[in-house]
From TrEMBL:
Keywords of the record: Oxidoreductase
Entries under PROSITE patterns matching the protein: PDH_ADH
Segments forming a coiled coil: none
Keyword Acetylation: no
Domain Prephenate/arogenate dehydrogenase: 8-296
Stored Pfam families: PDH_C, PDH_N
Protein's UniProt keywords contain Oxidoreductase: yes
Protein name: Prephenate dehydrogenase/arogenate dehydrogenase family protein
InterPro entries, per the entry: 6-PGluconate_DH-like_C_sf, NAD(P)-bd_dom_sf, PDH_C, PDH_N, Preph/Arog_dehydrog, Prephen_DH
Length: 296
């Protein structure tokens, strides 16, 4: 017998890359929810969500959507989560679940817990998946397939609500694991935030070259540089919020990187072939590890 839908009514606030991928997954493969609502404050996003038929109901009223739902997932930039949660939580039903997909936890757990009405659970979950594209057109139903989703529920969250969200993400195709906020932010600073900082900076450096050299760099960019440009094409608001919210952990991670980059530069300066080769070898081993874990 097919599984019953996990939720009666599910609202996705922010049908962008992640939000619209969840909606597409729910539409195509179910059984995630019997009824889907999507809400956003931007009229152009709502119009596109309607054109793409992403949900049964498309609305500008976040509070009305929340009041009708047994689960609400905030798929909006990190900086918008606190104010939007504060606005919708008083309208949420007893027994319902609030979630978000923010890339930085910082103090979100305690902050949102302090706003939670009796009988509403907060079970944030961060899918380690994405592309450089954003908006309702960017999503696709298989985005979470075989990718990790890190669940970061605050202490004291009812275990049934955690199990429900874990099942939700597994039905989206993801592997799930529960970790603490602090550990989450440390991992993401290394695997996601630092790489984006480097990519934005490398592209910025290229952009500041003299006009002729810049033009030729872009002309002949079918090389290592091209892979950085993919990451650097990511959404500015989202990444500004991530950098500012995970500031301390990101800066500590950057300092480690700076030291390692300096060691490599010194090895090059000193013509230390052995040190250079050893560092490159370690990089290759990371890549091989990802391939073995089927994450590359
Ligand atoms: O694959 C990409 O292009 C992404 O930027 C996805 C990526 C990442 O850095 O890996 C970006 C942010 C999310 O929080 C998780 C995943």
């Amino acid at each position: 017998m097919a599984d019953a839908p996990l939720f009666d009514t599910l609202t996705i606030i922010g049908p962008g890359l992640i939000g619209s991928s969840i909606l597409r997954r729910a539409r195509q493969t179910g059984p995630l929810a019997r009824r889907l609502i999507t809400a956003d404050s931007a009229p152009a996003v709502l119009q596109r969500a309607r054109e793409l038929d992403l949900a049964d109901e498309v609305t500008a009223s976040l509070t009305e959507a929340a009041a009708k739902s047994d689960a609400v997932i905030l798929c909006i930039p990190t900086g918008a989560i606190r104010p939007v949660a504060a606005a919708i939580l008083p309208h949420m039903r007893p027994g319902s679940i609030l979630s978000d997909v923010a890339s930085v936890r910082s103090t979100l757990g305690p902050d949102i817990s302090a706003l939670l009405p009796e009988d509403v659970s907060y079970v944030p979950a961060h899918p380690m998946a994405g592309t450089e594209y954003s908006g309702p057109d960017a999503g696709f139903a298989t985005l979470f397939e075989n990718r990790w989703t890190l669940l970061v529920p605050p202490a004291g969250t009812p275990s049934e609500a955690i199990t429900t969200m874990e099942t939700f993400w597994q039905r989206c195709g993801a592997r799930t694991r529960q970790i603490t906020d602090q550990y989450h932010d440390q991992i993401c600073a290394m695997v996601s935030h630092l790489p984006h900082l480097l990519a934005f900076t490398i592209c910025d450096t290229a952009d500041r070259l003299s006009a002729d050299l810049r033009a030729d760099v872009l002309e002949y960019a079918a090389s290592g540089f091209r892979d950085f440009t993919r990451i650097a094409a990511s959404d500015p608001t989202m990444w500004r919020d991530i950098f500012l919210t995970n500031r301390d952990v990101l800066l500590a991670t950057f300092e480690r990187f700076e030291k390692d980059a300096h060691l490599m530069v010194e090895a090059i300066r000193n013509g230390d072939s052995e040190a250079i080769t050893e560092r490159i070898r370690r990089g290759r081993r990371i890549r091989q590890g990802l391939i073995e874990n089927k994450q590359a």
